Amino acid sequence: MNHASILGAVVVLGFTVSSSFALQCYVCNSKNDTDCGSPPSERHLKNCDDLHYENNENGESFKVCRLQVMQSPTHGPAYDRRCGWKKHNENRETCILTPDPHLKATNCECHTEGCNTAVWTQPSMAVFWVFIAIGLIASRRGS
């Protein structure tokens, strides 16, 4: 079996394993729970498919984790973490700053397990697989 076949099998296996489990995100709001700060308590890591959101009328599958951080000059930061079913940016994890002179809000979207812990997002699985491919190519050249 050549290295390309091995790489292909590893990639297919990785995507099969990662897609066979429901997405897990941190789900909490710091207005109601002080353990939702930064970082959130592990007890807030939830299986998104076990949750019900009233505005998800069609029962779409969960695809993203969301984090909203609201900075108030009088109350400090407030955190809202949840699961989401609509990607605002299909190809990358992203954060958007909402400019408001009275309340600054940063809205983040990420696509990997438990990635909504902080405003900066963790690398996606794609980055992981790129490093695997580079390692296999490098080992082949060294043979």
Description:
By secondary structure, this protein is an alpha+beta fold. It has one domain (20-142): CD59 (Ribbon), CATH 2.10.60.10. The chain is 24% helix and 27% strand. The chain has helices spanning 3-19, 125-142; strands spanning 24-26, 28-29, 45-47, 64-72, 76-84, 94-98, 104-110. A hairpin with a 3-residue loop joins strand 4 and strand 5. The longest helix is centred in the last third of the chain and has 18 residues, at 125-142. The two termini are 15 Å apart.
Question: How is this fold's topology laid out?
Answer:
Layout: H1 3-19, E1 24-26, E2 28-29, E3 45-47, E4 64-72, E5 76-84, E6 94-98, E7 104-110, H2 125-142
Antiparallel strand pairs: 1-3, 2-5, 4-5, 4-7, 6-7
Estimate the global geometry from the Cα principal axes. Answer: globular
Number of strands: 7
CATH superfamily: CD59
- Average pLDDT taken over every residue: 75
Instruction: Give me the side-by-side strand order of the main sheet.
Output: 2-5-4-7-6
By CATH, the topology is CD59
Largest beta sheet, briefly? 5 strands, antiparallel
Radius of gyration: 19 Å
CATH architecture: Ribbon
| CA(first)-CA(last) distance | 15 Å
Structural class computed from helices and strand pairing: alpha+beta
Low-pLDDT residue intervals, each spanning 5 or more residues: 6-20, 121-129
Mind telling me the CATH class? Answer: Mainly Beta
Number of domains: 1
- Give the amount of beta strand, in percent: 25-35%
Strand-and-helix sequence, N→C? HEEEEEEEH
Tally of DSSP helical segments = 2
Helix share of residues?
A: 10-25%
